[in-house]
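Quick one, probably user error.
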């Protein structure tokens, strides 16, 4: 599922995760309370139905946010670090892997590459991350492009 910026299409909300302006009011008043309620209810529902053990839930965006606030009170795109949440299907709950520096600007401990995230997903889906897929020149490339599952978060 996707949490899109519906304000541009349906005028439902002016808050979107792309917080180039008004970052803190949007997070405090709309985004985080709604995410917290929705995410926790979803996980509790899956767990209560006995489905969490077989359902992989991955929560991520395509990039992080700048550690510095811009002139509009927002945070711009930042590719040097961001968070990903995993739950269910072989994930050790409550596990934290890695850390950023004290400014949340750069990775300080245990960097994980996007290919490692995908290798973890493939592994949990029962797909060998080394399984070859073929490019347009018919050359084999590992489906996770050399990534390795993140062992610290796996049960």
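Nope, works fine. Designed sequence:
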């Amino acid at each position: 599922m996707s949490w899109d910026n519906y304000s541009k299409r349906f005028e439902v909300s002016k808050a979107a995760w792309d917080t180039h302006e008004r970052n803190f009011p949007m997070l405090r008043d709309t985004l985080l309370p709604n995410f917290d309620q929705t995410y926790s209810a979803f996980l509790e529902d899956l767990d209560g139905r006995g489905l969490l053990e077989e359902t992989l839930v991955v929560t991520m965006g395509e990039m992080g946010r700048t550690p510095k606030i811009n002139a509009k009170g927002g945070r711009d795109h930042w590719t040097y670090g961001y968070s990903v949440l995993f739950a269910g299907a072989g994930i050790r709950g409550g596990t934290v892997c890695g850390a950023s520096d004290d400014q949340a600007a750069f990775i300080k401990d245990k960097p994980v590459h996007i290919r490692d995230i995908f290798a973890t997903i493939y592994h949990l889906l029962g797909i060998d991350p080394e399984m070859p897929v073929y490019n347009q020149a018919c050359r084999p490339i590992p489906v996770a492009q050399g990534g390795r599952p993140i062992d610290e978060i796996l049960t």
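The longest helix spans residues 23-48.
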